Amino acid sequence: MKIIDSISRMSVLIKILKKEGKSIGFVPTMGYLHEGHLSLVRTAKKHTDVVAMSIFVNPIQFDRREDLEKYPRDFKHDEGLARDAGVDIIFYPSVKDMYPDGYSTYVNVEGLTDYLCGSSRPGHFKGVTTVVAKLFGIVKPDIAYFGQKDAQQAIVIKRMATDLNMDIEIKILPIIREKDGLAMSSRNINLSEPERKDAAVLFQALKKAEALVKEGERDAKKIIRQMEAMIKGKETAKIDYISIVDTKDLKPMSTVLSEALVALAVFFGKTRLIDNIIVKA
Amino acid sequence: MKIIDSISRMSVLIKILKKEGKSIGFVPTMGYLHEGHLSLVRTAKKHTDVVAMSIFVNPIQFDRREDLEKYPRDFKHDEGLARDAGVDIIFYPSVKDMYPDGYSTYVNVEGLTDYLCGSSRPGHFKGVTTVVAKLFGIVKPDIAYFGQKDAQQAIVIKRMATDLNMDIEIKILPIIREKDGLAMSSRNINLSEPERKDAAVLFQALKKAEALVKEGERDAKKIIRQMEAMIKGKETAKIDYISIVDTKDLKPMSTVLSEALVALAVFFGKTRLIDNIIVKA
Lengths: 281, 281
Hints:
2 copies of one chain form a homodimer. The relative contact order of chain A is 0.13. By secondary structure, chain A is α/β, with parallel strands linked by helices. Helix content of chain A is about 40%, strand content about 20%. The first copy, chain A, is built from 11 helices and 10 strands. In chain A, strand 6, helix 8 (about 150-165) and strand 7 (about 170-175) form a beta-alpha-beta unit. The N and C termini of chain A lie far apart (about 45 Å). Chains A and B meet through strand 5, helix 7 and helix 8 of A and strand 5, helix 7 and helix 8 of B.
């Protein structure tokens, strides 16, 4: 496994791989790897000749400085996990290399980023699409892999890749969960013991929404109210949002028709977690 | 010469050329070709194996609907000129193919677009950088060619390509002028006879600025005042802006030190023309 910590050296390596006709699978991460990331790697290995993973905590996608500073990092541990999962190249650039003095260019997906996390974290998705556009420029993957946990991010990145004619296939893979249903996230490490216990309610609330729809409930407000009641029952939980939206344009639905994305963001103490489920009416 | 009018067919062709190891030179245009465009083609032919030219009047870079509607078009004539200059591929997509329903992604270079044309044409550069990012995604050139006439556009696109790690060399070639010094522009066709005569003053004013700097004048305001006086002497002229700015960050200079860009935009009747010169103190 190669570890490349500069853009210029990564570009040289990618040029060689392209010349050799190798297909490139790409898993962009912010590190502190968990089974969610590793499942992306394992799938990428089945599809492509070379799997590149980036580890870069992208400062411009954090709306709160505190969140950026607290974001967990452990490169040595990540390196071991990546190697075991079969990553061929770790791309690990510095902030200064990615955003040198005079940096000025931003990619933004309008509309889709007005809802859900976009309204509670202004500027977040602009930071995400910008860094992903840069990483795509450097790594030039044939296929890039993202997790369904960041449902809105997945939709926004697909839109960006299509709109900017990037000629990169975007694959979205299922959420990987802990035994009690909590979606795996690098942020889970920041939870205290009681917060960690309470956080299991998120998946229970999402399963409740799924069950209600299965039973015939179509009123989004009623579904959300029941989810709210469950989450508010946990002492350390503070709801950021619970929304039921169209899976394509992310616009809020008042009546659940066909396919809907039930998505939520909830603080447990200072840690903000997100999760979601797709339900079919 | 191939004429390709769909993105999907262009992508197939580019993939074949890349596989054959051909280098691609790219000249993006809005058509109504003149010697300025053709000089880009002739240079591209010296550097690269295949020269692709796009002809696309990009609606999202026009701030005034009238300007978009009046923008001159003559594909048949362009086709002949392109063929004679040695273009290998004309890429001629439709608006619907470039911006289908649901289109949402925009690329923006912040800061650099606050000055000069950016302040008098809000949204213009966002439209330019977005379409160029798309065209780069489709055509995947090794080198792309732009004219110095659009000085700010050239600087903004260089910035975008660097910032987004596009791995495309951006070459900026000199302004091509008519005998009386008027910079070649597709818009010149919209000038009435008296407007066309008056428009020669632009180059005279720029040469005046150059001469003043050569004589030792360093006060930007004084230089601009003399240019204004010359242009205001023409009946059909109405100044949009005259600015002396830093060639790197485009910030206005009050004192001309080292290298400066003297840039102007002037309406003759309803037609807005731009021109510029680089002066060295």
